[in-house]
């Protein structure tokens, strides 16, 4: 085999190996932990958030609202009927008696669903029960 062919083959193998490891790194890279981020903005009520929600897609915000529903199966809390907060770090069984309480929650805003008239948040963190 000629030296040029061997060198070309080695370069191709090296390139494929590098591409393979880059792909593995991208595939197994952890998503950011939004829980540790500071809130971009705090809202004292949900009405203020509704006015400027388009400016906060993908941002971490703090919102105060009244608990209207707790979905234990999907680990979600609804504030003021149309604000859905998904929790992954805690079990909502501890929130059992908190319906109609005023809560402050920090979460990442992921969008508005006009079909269900629902503002969705993930990576939610319970901050305070303001009714206690």
Could you provide a short overview of the structure?
With 132 residues, this protein is of the alpha/beta class. It is built from two helices and six strands, in the order αβαβββββ. The chain has helices at 3-28, 46-52; strands spanning 41-43, 60-71, 76-79, 83-86, 102-113, 118-129.
Describe the overall structure.
There is one protein chain. By secondary structure, this protein is α/β, with parallel strands linked by helices. It folds into two domains: 1-30; 34-129, OB fold (Dihydrolipoamide Acetyltransferase, E2P). The chain contains two helices and six strands, in the order αβαβββββ. A five-stranded mixed β-barrel has the order 2-3-4-6-5. α2 (46-52) links the parallel β1 (41-43) and β2 (60-71). The longest helix is centred in the first third of the chain and has 26 residues, at 3-28.
